[in-house]
Amino acid sequence: MIHPTAIVDPRAEIDASAVVGPFVVIEGPARIGARTRVAAHAVVTGGAELGADNVIHSGAVIGDLPQDVAFGGAESFLRIGDGNVFREHATIHRGTQPGSETRIGHRNYFMQNSHVAHNCSIGNDAIVAGGALLSGYVELGDRGFVSGNCVVHQFVRIGRLALLRGLSRTSRDVPPFCIMDGTHTVRAINLIGLRRAGFSPFAIRAVRNAFKTLFLRSRNLQRALEDVDAAASEEVRELVEFIRASRRGVCFGPRTLGAATPPASEE
Question: CA 61 from chain center: how many Å?
Answer without folding.
Answer: 17
